[in-house]
Every structure is written in C-alpha cells, then in structure tokens.
C-alpha cells in the first residue's frame, strides 16, 4: 500500500526565507504573503532594544489574509533586521553599529563610528537593501519604539499615508526632519533619496507587544491595503 497523499491546501504564504545573515551568523528572515500587484514591506525591528513590534510581526500574516488583502497586495514581512542586537537587547548590531544609520543615503555620516564608517558596511543593512531592490515596494513600514511618547514618522511621498495611519491608530504624525537628524537612516535613503514611501512607527518604549498589535492592527491593514 502506498502512503496516502495529503497535499497541503494552496496557501498564499510561500514560507520563511533567509534574506541575509547577521554579523554573528543569525539568519535574517522574510515571509511573503499575498499575490497582488501592490508591493509592501513591513520590517519588524531594526533596533535590537525595541522589541515592541514582535507580536505585530507574528500576527500580521493571518490578519492580512483575514482582511482579504491577498489578491490585491503582496506583503513581505522582514521579521527582524537586527537579530544580534535583539538577542542581547542592544540598539546596534554585534559591532555596535546602528543599522539605521548605515544606509547609503546622501546624508550618511562617515565621521560617526556608530554609523559604520562606510555606507552599507553592515550585512543587516545590505539584507534590507537587497530585499527592497528585489520586491520594489510602494510602501515600507518599520517598527520602532521611543521613550516617553509615540508617533508616526514619515519620509518620502508618505504624508497622506501617515495621516491615514494616524486616523486609525491615534498616533500623531511627525515629519522626520522635525525632531532629530537621522543621517544614513532607512528613511533618508529609501524615502528621501529614492522616493519610496516610508512610515516609521514609533510606539511607546516598553509597551506590551500584544497591546501594540491591538492598537496598530486597523491602521496597518488600512495602509497596507493602499
Ligand atoms: Zn528605533
């Protein structure tokens, strides 16, 4: 007797893939769900001491499917761009470089050692660049946290998207140049230099990741849907 075959029901998720490797050799993983023409990238974290987006990263694929977005959107979820930092609760990677200052933006700061010295010197930044170049997203969302307050920050052609996110989440909109210089940041490079809409989601540092997901879910699905 041959083994009965149980082919899986065709899922829209294609499974986790490794899109890069950290300084210490940890995999940087991404999951793609949906098959629509609109391409969106969600990055679950880039600063290792900001784990508040972790539940959101886990829950988003099922919520995306349940919201009926799979036919109109292809969503790539990059689980964690800085797994070495996350492992020890540090902002930077294993070399102490702030991955979010290591992008080859026009405003890259070669003088600040925490920027890495050279643009895209770090494998974590290169994994993000290669992923963006491969999928060509119309929108990039990145999960962060901020001590003392929470807000939506945007770069590139994303003001209207940020305002819709704000309406659905209650987080206020702040233009990135208004509160802090961010040389070599993901937003500087993809948003300002390359003209891709970038939303930086700054939730209250120390928030319960489950509460963050509950609050952000409607806003995320709204802007991912376009
Ligand atoms: Zn951050």
Notable traits:
binds zinc ion, alpha/beta, eight-stranded mixed sheet, Aminopeptidase, 226 residues
List the helices and strands and how they pair.
Blueprint: E1 16-21, E2 27-33, E3 38-43, H1 54-66, E4 73-78, H2 83-88, H3 123-135, E5 139-146, E6 151-155, H4 159-169, E7 172-175, H5 186-193, E8 197-204, H6 209-225
The structure holds zinc ion.
The site of zinc ion has 3 residues, from loops.
Structure characterization notes:
This protein has one domain (16-225): Aminopeptidase. It has 226 residues and is of the alpha/beta class. It is built from six helices and eight strands; from the N terminus they run βββαβααββαβαβα. The longest helix is centred in the C-terminal third of the chain and has 17 residues, at 209-225. Zinc ion binds next to loops. Residues 47, 50, 144 line the site of zinc ion.
């Amino acid at each position: 007797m041959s083994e009965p075959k149980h082919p899986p029901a065709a899922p829209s998720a294609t499974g986790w893939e490794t899109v890069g490797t950290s300084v210490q050799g940890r995999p940087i993983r991404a999951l793609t769900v949906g098959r629509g023409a609109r391409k969106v990238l969600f990055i679950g974290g880039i600063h290792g001491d900001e784990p508040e987006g972790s539940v959101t990263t886990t829950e988003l694929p099922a919520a995306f499917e349940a919201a009926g977005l799979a036919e109109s959107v292809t969503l790539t979820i990059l689980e964690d761009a800085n797994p070495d930092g996350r492992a020890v609760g540090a902002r930077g990677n294993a070399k102490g470089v702030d991955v979010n200052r290591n992008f080859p933006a026009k405003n890259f700061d070669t003088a600040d050692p925490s920027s890495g010295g050279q643009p895209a010197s770090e494998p974590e930044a290169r994994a993000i660049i290669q992923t963006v170049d491969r999928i060509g997203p119309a929108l990039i969302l990145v999960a962060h946290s901020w001590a003392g307050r929470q807000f939506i920050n945007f770069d590139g052609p994303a003001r209207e998207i940020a305002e819709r996110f704000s309406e659905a989440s209650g987080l206020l909109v702040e233009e990135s140049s208004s509160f802090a210089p961010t040389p070599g940041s993901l937003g500087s490079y993809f948003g300002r230099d390359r003209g891709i809409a970038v939303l930086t989601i700054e939730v209250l540092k120390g928030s319960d990741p489950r509460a963050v997901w509950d609050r952000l879910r409607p806003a995320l699905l709204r802007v991912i849907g376009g």
